[in-house]
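Q: Here's a chain of 227 amino acids. Please give me its 3D structure as tokens.
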Amino acid sequence: MKRTLIILIVCLSLSGFSQKEGQENALFTIRGNIGIPRVISSQMFRTAFAGLYEGNLSLNIKLFGNFFVGVGYQNTQFQNNKFLKFQYFNASIPYNTRLMCHGTFVKLGYDKFFSDKGYASFNLNSGLMLNNYFNVNADTSNANKPFVIKDFSAPYVQPEVSLNFIVEKHLSFSLMLSYTTLFYKFDPKAPRFAQFQEIKSSSNNYFMGWMNIGFGFHILLDKKTKE
């Protein structure tokens, strides 16, 4: 519940800003974010992998007021934790297994201005994510049998909040927080990790999920300014 509490506190803080009367965002916006994801749900997934980066980019159009809709692409990558090593005679060889995630999504959002140069964005991204394990070490132990494929796809949702500050007429920079829920339970057999006791003893009761704190930008096209 810690992740839920953090997101709730941020949302309540942002919603406390009073709306700037008559202030609207651009008709078209290009929005991008980048950060380092931190695995939250599924102890087994968290034991096996750590986030390397996450970035997304979306094209958006204003519907009415400051409500907007868009489409986008997201790329996320995880790498195995350092304790995972292959024992070869008297040598320990570190694993270099990675999980690459490619997602396409629809974005629904709302911009709330609290000054002429600042606004909060409340977004919900939802779509399909294609996932592949790379550099998988072959392991034929019984723990990894029956063998499963190294790629999978699943739907996901991603609530996202950000604080944005306009630095030029057509450009703003932001601080953002998001939480991704991938509707798929981590399977340690796919990356061939099921033989590790640290992973076998971890719980796996929830879907794969991670939090991302990072930075972003908005390109504001057809942005009108007051005379």
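Q: Can you summarize the key feature?
A: The beta strands are 28-41, 49-64, 67-80, 85-88, 91-94, 98-115, 118-134, 151-168, 171-182, 208-221.
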